[in-house]
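Support request from a user on the community tier.

User writes: "When I paste my structure tokens into the form, the page sometimes reloads and wipes my input. The last time it worked, I copied everything first. Here is what I submitted, just in case something in the input itself triggers the reload:"
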């Protein structure tokens, strides 16, 4: 058993926590595990974003090609397993950590006189790349917050697909058939790949060894109900091997079916509870407080909320079905935040009063209230060094207590912004 399969067994048994893969920002450059064969002629490269290689009579087919920083190591690992030409790459979706490194295989083909490999993806991937180029600055700032980068970082050049499909597509490669199915979930351009003869399923980020990334507060719309359906459809295939987009593979039909089914169950529960409260006319604030994720699911080693959080999924569902108005009429056309902060500070007796109360609340562990008050104090008195320092301390405390990468990154960025 190699490093990949050893990690898989340890994580399934809860020995290594899921945050081994998803939690730490340095996983972008350090999150490389290795390569193992997970079925005859199928290799899995464990990386920050995984790559699955399937041997066919026409050459290798890669499901995803890796992140920009780790693509060279992925290539080296693959070539330690097979020297066969790459026939094609399938993007499971267009996220940056899954679609870089293909140029190396194109260059190899040219050098060896092999037929040029091609990229296959859902038709919406190209639109995603177009949008990424328009919003590169914004996405760079997201990455800076989320991964503690020293400056905004996001690419502007992408390897667009050569071939696209809408709903379903099949590649017939000698005696190997690859069935590719579109599914909206974390993205609108997602797909999963099923190889029936070896019962191998490569599902991209539809499964990530964590509670689904279905509410990311800094990203575009996610689709919880469609995601749950895709998980049910994949479970119905009864795969022997599950190759996810992040985290190690899962081997054995019993394990793959329960992992996929329980991930669907979590999304279905959050969806049903949220819609029930929305249909009763509840405000967003009451919906967020009223929806409770099933504890027995969040305790699973593959569903811990180490990346996204259930309350973020609830907010995403509100955005999907209810728009941006949260039910509070004061928020429809609110005053500028700084104007409201100055008014609150004046009523309290000064920005320092708000700040002192925030520090007291933080000491008592009431960090949500503490952050709200210290943020108002900082907006009311932006040049006050004492308030700035208090803001940094409170957000540092909040970041250190955060369970998810999403929350930690935002709170950590706020703390660093204040010098903490």
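"...and here is what came back when it finally went through:"
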């Amino acid at each position: 058993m190699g490093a990949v399969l050893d990690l898989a067994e340890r994580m399934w048994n809860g020995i290594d926590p899921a945050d081994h893969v998803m939690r730490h920002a340095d996983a972008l450059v350090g999150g490389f595990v290795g390569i193992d064969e997970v079925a005859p002629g199928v290799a899995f490269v464990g990386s920050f974003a995984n790559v699955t290689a399937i041997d066919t009579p026409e050459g290798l087919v890669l499901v995803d090609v890796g992140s920009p920083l780790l693509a060279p190591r992925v290539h080296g690992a693959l070539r330690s397993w097979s020297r066969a030409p790459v026939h094609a790459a399938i993007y499971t979706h267009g996220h940056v950590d899954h679609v870089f490194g293909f140029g190396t295989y194109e260059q190899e083909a040219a050098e060896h006189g092999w037929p040029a490999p091609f990229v296959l993806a859902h038709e919406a991937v190209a639109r995603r790349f177009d949008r990424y180029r328009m919003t590169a600055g914004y996405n760079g700032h997201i990455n800076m917050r989320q991964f503690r980068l020293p400056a905004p970082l996001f690419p502007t050049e992408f390897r667009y697909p050569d071939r696209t499909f809408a709903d379903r597509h099949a590649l017939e490669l000698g005696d190997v058939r690859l069935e590719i199915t579109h599914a909206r979930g974390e993205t609108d351009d997602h797909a999963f790949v099923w190889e029936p003869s070896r019962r191998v399923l490569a599902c991209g980020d539809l499964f990530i060894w964590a509670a689904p990334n279905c509410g990311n507060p800094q990203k575009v719309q996610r689709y919880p109900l469609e995601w749950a359906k895709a998980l049910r459809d994949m479970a119905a295939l009864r795969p022997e091997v599950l190759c996810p987009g992040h985290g190690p593979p899962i081997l054995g039909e019993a394990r793959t079916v329960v992992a996929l089914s329980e991930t669907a169950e979590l999304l279905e529960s959050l969806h049903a509870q949220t819609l029930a409260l929305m249909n009763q006319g509840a405000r967003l604030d009451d919906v967020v407080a009223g929806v409770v994720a099933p504890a027995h699911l969040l305790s699973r080693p593959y569903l811990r909320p180490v990346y996204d959080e259930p309350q973020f999924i609830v907010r995403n569902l509100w955005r999907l079905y209810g728009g941006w108005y949260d039910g509070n009429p004061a928020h429809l056309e609110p005053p500028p935040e700084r104007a409201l902060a100055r008014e609150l500070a004046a009523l309290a007796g000064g920005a320092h009063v708000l700040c002192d109360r925030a520090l007291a609340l933080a000491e008592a562990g009431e960090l949500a209230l503490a952050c709200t008050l210290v943020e108002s104090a900082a907006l009311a008195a932006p040049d006050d060094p004492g308030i700035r320092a208090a803001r940094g301390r409170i957000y540092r405390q909040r970041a250190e207590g955060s369970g998810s990468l999403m929350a930690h990154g935002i709170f950590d960025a706020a703390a660093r912004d204040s010098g903490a």
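Agent notes: The reload is a front-end session timeout and is unrelated to the input. The chain has two domains: 3-267, 335-417. The chain has a mean pLDDT of 94. Escalated to web team.
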